[in-house]
Amino acid sequence: MPLSGWLCDIGFLGGWPSVFYVFGVLGVLWGIAWFLLVSDRPSNHPRISLAEKNYITKHCGVRGSKPTPVPWRAVLTSLPMWAIAAMHFGQNWGFYTLLTELPTYLKNIQHFDMKSNGIISALPYLVMWIFSIIFSTIMDKLLAAGKVATLTVRRTAMIIGIYCPTVGLVAMCFVNCDAVLAVVVLCVSVGLNGAVYAGYMCSHQDLAPNFAGFLMGLTNTVATIPGFAAPQLTGAITKDVKRRKDTEGASNREMATVQRM
Q1: Number of folded domains in the chain?
Q2: Which residues cross the membrane (predicted)?
């Protein structure tokens, strides 16, 4: 986000199009590195140490030549699996809404310039990253010490990670044009959302360790729908506000032209 704001500000490759070019090229380069450096299993990796190979084999086992068949019927009729999918969908709806609309809010409502917008848009996610590491580490230590049960960790994480940000986003309705207060509330709301990584994100492993990757792929497919649905709904709700601002902007430009004449 800070790099995007900076690219738009300096006008490189036409300004905002450079964001797509730069990150697109980086994605291609990362993909090339992935195909060149990644191996299927430790025994096939040309640069792995013997100690690391033994460690992975000991703790994760060695996958057989034939993968275990996916129990589709059991998966699709599992209420816990659908509960995780519903939670994943709801989490991503809020996440994608903020991710896509936060720069617009900071520009149109709080009137940050493009360069500052990129930095401030990234700040809540920096707080989220830091909090998720701290919270997950604490929960892991409590689990290892036998102080709390796994179910308690998951429930606590979801209360903090979902309900607290909900209250924070409602509070955003009352900050008005106080830019500092708006940024603080956003940082707290998005930051606390980092607790979900010790919540439903781990539930796939709790539910079926042998199929955790498959379950994550399944629920994440459902949860990707908000990626295109949430911005569309947000745009439909706020279209009158955008139209009014465009009209006001055109009127101001016309007034400035008349004054210069």
Answers
A1: 2
A2: 20-38, 119-139, 160-191, 211-234
d(CA 113, CA 116) in angstroms, rounded, equals 5
Task: Pull the structure tokens for residue 48.
Answer: 């792995």
The domain containing residue 38 runs over which residues?
A: 1-67
User: Distance (Å, rounded) from C-alpha 103 to C-alpha 197?
Assistant: 24
Number of helices followed by number of strands (H, E) in the chain: 12, 0
Question: In one letter, which amino acid is 160?
Answer: I
pLDDT tens-digit series, residues 148-195: 999 999 999 999 999 999 999 899 888 888 888 988 999 999 999 999
Tell me if 248 is assigned to some domain.
no
The token duo for 238 is 């706020």
**In 3-state terms, what secondary structure has residue 39?**
coil
